[in-house]
Amino acid sequence: MVRRRRTAGLIALAFAALYLLLVVVLPLPPAAAGRISQLALTGVGLCAALRWGRAALRAGGRMRAGLALWSLAAAGWATGEGIWVLDGWDTGLAPASSLANACFVVTMVATPLAAVLLVGTPSASLRTLFDALMIGTSLFFVLWALLLGPLQRSGHPNIGTVAYALTDVVVLSLLLLLLADAGPALRAPLEISAVGILVMFVADITYAAQTIDGTYRFGALPDALWMVAFTIIAVAAPHRSELRGVTRLSDGGRPRAYLPYVPFLLAFVTGVSILIGGGRMDRMLAALSMTLTALVVSRQMLILGDNRRLTRQLSTLVEDLRFRAEHDALTGLANRAGFESGAERALAGARPVALLLIDLDGFKPVNDTYGHDAGDRVLVEVGRRLRAAAGADGLVARLGGDEFAVLTPGDPAPVADRVLAALGEAFDAGVRIGASVGIAFGKPGKQRVGRLVRDADMAMYEAKRDGRNKVVMAARVA
């Protein structure tokens, strides 16, 4: 993987050297150098589109969509460059036509969408997109208040070219925010792409300054910077080995939650300074203020939604852990902890209770003859039959191994008869077992759970000594 990217980098370096030789070093006429420059930009844009598009074909699901959008962004830029060079073929300079600008807009829209698709869950990606828009809008607010606004009021044309640089700020902010969450397969491509976007930002700022000054020509410094930027982006495209076996887009890392509020605070201070200094908010600053407000509110709504979802998940997890802590995993009956808790509540009530302690007779040969899977199925069926025998008021528990308990109010004799009858019926494959049952009585306020279990245990062992498949009752509590 590293070797392939190094090879691609060397090819790109050779291409950039050839570009500099033809455009800068050789004494070519400016018009010819400009044509070569723009054609080279179109070519390198198409190269980036092809490399990212090929990566998309090798990916799947959401990653494929993100890589395809990245390819579309590069293709839009290359198409816009091609249209632009044709418009200015003779003069070496021409304002970008509406069609060329439409192609560049495709790049401006597709790039951030591609970034949010490539990393994290949908809600986290959407929140990250809002973070990047907050950063870009806040910086645009400051830039308009201090520079662009005065230029626009003085009648300068072409200040719209700054929009490309501002888009770079949004995309670069987005990538920086996403790098904390990116999975191993995408971290290197995104880091290299971030460098390319940074160079693109410098190129767009330089282009905007030269356009406002009227000094830009095909083949000027912005062209060389664009060449470097898209060469880096083309090299960044993930290889087959990076995409093979990828099962997640994110490492689940923590995003930089407070980063978007730094430029927002800068914009807020700038706005307050204008008002304190006696200035006024023009329509653009007012629109940007409303946009920032909407972005902050939307981001907070997303965070509230995430918090509500996490709270529901946490509640479900707590309930699941509580259930697991008090229930047997195999049968779904109460375990020893759940039984003791229920018995303590019953003994704290007003009604007398009885405990039936049940030990299965002849269960060990089932495991030895049919295997533990068959034994587990028998235990599950025992639990089902005990529930039916205990009725709605009885608490049925598996205390461990083949030992069960039934806690019931009132007379336990009918329950014991139903238990013996139910367990005496054949199980799967003709398996037959029995049960020895010991019964102890508990009177509220007179006995603790431990004493109740010991009394029932002694009665149960007496039932076993008497020949098994019997019921023995301990003495009643006075």
Give the topology.
Blueprint: H1 2-25, H2 30-58, H3 61-87, H4 98-118, H5 122-153, H6 162-179, H7 184-213, H8 221-236, H9 240-243, H10 261-276, H11 283-326, H12 336-347, E1 353-361, H13 364-370, H14 372-390, E2 395-400, E3 403-409, H15 413-424, E4 434-442, H16 449-465, E5 471-473
Parallel strand pairs: 4-5
Antiparallel strand pairs: 1-3, 1-4, 2-3
Helix pairs in contact: 1-2, 1-8, 2-3, 2-8, 3-4, 4-5, 4-6, 5-6, 5-10, 5-11, 6-7, 7-8, 13-14, 14-15
User: How is the main sheet built?
Assistant: 5 strands, mixed
Structural class: alpha+beta
The rounded Rg comes to 38 Å
- What's the shape? elongated
Distance between the termini: 82 Å
**In percent, how helical is the residue content?**
55-70%
Figure out the total of helices.
Answer: 16
SSE pattern, N- to C-terminal: HHHHHHHHHHHHEHHEEHEHE
- What is the quaternary state of this protein? single chain
Mean pLDDT figure: 80
Total strands: the figure is 5
Strand content: 5-15%
Question: Unreliable runs, pLDDT <50, ≥5 residues?
Answer: 247-255
Across the major sheet, the strand order is 2-3-1-4-5
